[in-house]
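Minutes, project check-in
Item: structure for the 308-residue chain
Input as provided by the requester:
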Amino acid sequence: MTAAVAATPMVDIPAGRFRMGADDAYPEEAPAHLVDVDAFRIDVHAVTNAQFAAFVAATGHVTVSETVPLASDYPGARPEMLFAGSLVFRRTRGAVDTRDWSQWWELRPGASWRHPYGPQTSIAGLDDHPVVHVAYADALAYARWVGKDLPTEAEFEYAARGGLDGKAYAWGDVFRPGGRHMANTWQGKFPHQNSREDGWEATAPVGSYPANGYGLHDMIGNTWEWTQDWFAPQHLVDPAKACCIPRNPRGPAAGRLDPAAPIPQKVLKGGSFLCAPSYCKRYRPAARHAESIDTATCHIGFRCVVRG
């Protein structure tokens, strides 16, 4: 990394045991189970636009969203859909059926980390915002460039809890203690009404919200973040090994466990500025989401870890 762009500070996370997942929320978070995690270090905040720009300048990396998809990789795809671009959120004009995500997501030509809302937009003035529109391969390439790695799902959740085992949020059991916004989420009726009570319509500068018990910022809200683990519809806990607490679990060995998902999927953690009580209450450490490895959006970023 160039001297002009500072490396992300890191925090030492001690080895420990915690209860991973939840039994009282979305089905993919179950079953809650004990996990042991070895000590590791993790970035204090998500990788920023300035840091990712330094990586691109040094390596010439071209992101997935800046690359025209090959027809051979997408059999049956309409030719007009094979263009360089990324998924961009747009508010709807009114209430819609929230089971249909296509009402608020648009695959926009020219959208990328440099142009988060299309070719006419830029990241000018957003150096300290988390980089978005990065697919899994882009996040991994950056991590390798700085001599780090991406976190596992267990590492991310353990760090996100900040030492508060079993709490609903990264700061306790109350979403807004004393009325204070603790994370960048959606306020209002999703996807058409956002009151922006927390001050932000989309991403916020990293570190805008209070750190958790480990001194980490935005482990909840702001952007979803990539992890190493392949997604499974539930946590893979072997009933035959109830006597044994898994140590440093890595998830399933393959990424096509869901027949409805033709592209392999990784686990996202943390929730984003689009998470709302009326739609996606996933601004919690236990929450998890599947994302295809070829997908980039305006609300997915990442941070890095170092083990050993």
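Outcome recorded: The radius of gyration is 19 Å.
No further action items on this chain.
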